[in-house]
Prior knowledge:
Layout: H1 2-11, E1 15-16, H2 25-32, H3 42-46, H4 53-68, H5 72-83, H6 88-93, H7 96-100, E2 104-105, H8 117-126, H9 139-154
Parallel strand pairs: 1-2
Amino acid sequence: GTTWLWRNLRAHPGLWMPPVKELHYFDDKAVTGWPPLCALSKKRLMRMPRSWWRYRKQFSRRLREQRKRPSLEALRWDAAYFLMPPSDRWYVSLFSPGNSRGALSGEVTPNYCGLDPTAIRHVMKVAPEARIVFFLRNPIEASYSFAEMFFDRIQGRPLHSVPESEL
């Protein structure tokens, strides 16, 4: 559901969305001290916590896109996103391409729905004009989608091969 929402928002002429769907700033990078890619040696990159693997996948995907459709604007955005240390100022700067066009901008990160009150206050401090869209799915479909993603993408096993007792 969130991929559908992100794609449709990106297609809207009055909106600007980052090229990466899930920025995970308020639920991850602002909390864990997540390092920029340039701060990681190959050895450290291989020992990253599981939550940081998402970052490696994003980086690989962006490299492939840059090879297919090179763009100076996209390269600038990627350099800021992947090479600069995360901070509130960094997060706000990620939306500057949209601001320079006078477009509304935003992001889609499903994990924000579980932010605690301290993190919500942080969002309000960093983006006081923000408007929240809470996209609620059928709980059964959402659970199935999560299980499929967890087993297939994270554990490398297709969902149909997982015993019912494990589910």
